[in-house]
Design goal:
By secondary structure, the protein is of the alpha/beta class. Helix content is 37%, strand content 16%. The protein has a 7-stranded mixed sheet with strand order 8-7-6-1-2-5-14, with helices on both faces. The longest helix is centred in the middle third of the chain and has 24 residues.
Length: 403
Amino acid sequence: MKPISELLVLDFSRYLPGGYATQVLADMGARVIKIEDTDKGDLCRHDYPIRNNVSFYISALGRNKESASLNLKNTEVQSYLQEMAKKADVIVESFRPGVTKKLGVDYETIRSINPTVVYCSITGYGEFDPRSLRVSHDVCVQATTGYLDINGGVITPLPLVDVAAHSVATQAIFAALYQRGATGQGAYVDISMFDTFVWWNSLIDSRWSFNGGQCTADDLDSPSGANNLYETKDGRYLAFSMIEKKFWDGFCDSVNAPELKVVHLHRRWEYPAEFERIEAIVKSRTLAEWEEFFADKDFGVEPVLSKDEGIARILEQEPNMMRYVDFPRAGRVLQTGIPHQVSSIPFDLSTVRECPALGEQTEQFLKEAGASDETIARLGEAGLVGLNNAPVEPDRIPLAPRA
């Protein structure tokens, strides 16, 4: 099997699931080419906030990649795309079922010219499920798996379904590449966003089953006495995560409240007076005083940091997981690394390349596919490929400025 640095990846996907998956491949050294529309490219180029015509979204998910801007509906352009597909090791797409066939880049077509390709489709419910023909984004899947109900109807800042789909897609792609190394044959990877989130719900659903078909927020491990958030004297919060009783018991002894040991993972309705006692203890000191108190103790208690504080701490403690990088177009931006620490595949945030401008590598792409300079110029003049690299003006309503 080829080392990752020799892999060629064509990424037709839009937004987070595919972009996250191919980001891992790009950061590990694979050559990843985003195949984008000639009009406005990937939709994630236009999400606010935007700086110097660079969206935060594409800045986060586009580094170390290339961009080819192509009109995929044109048969001549399709022929050059198929020439590159012959060389591709991995193809990732997130169109609705049937779209890739119209564009001439469906799995059967690509497999006929490249039987070793690992082809990954990401859809709402799977490539062959008619539900995937409908629009289905993150919150829809959270709703239909029952997760939103358990979560009290709270929409999380992090799109959990998208992240779940990316993680499963990345795992499956690497598994297929491993299998290809053994058999010489490619594979079709069919990722259902719904199924990935059902899998992520397995612990909750198992609890539901064991609990006689019932699962509410009160049935979960938190909030309980030792697994909860408590307010401090200065209005900040401590996060308690003392799942093991020995840590909870140690905490109770350290604050001279051994009578609270009985609470542990019980809920407020079981021990209302004891909960009030815990709250009073935590509220007797400021956050800074608690941090000093816990400095030489290992119980499983951490301060609830603001995002400013959290990022500052990561920047200081893990500079290869998060750092500011100076890019030519976007300027100084925060970049987050990948957690995949493999000794033979070094990753250094200080050397990452800025996300490409739309179509920045179109000419190179077409030349590698066999197009002449004259052909490239003609396709560019006809608007069938994007060559001018002009900034794409955003077409979305910006966020209101902060007061």
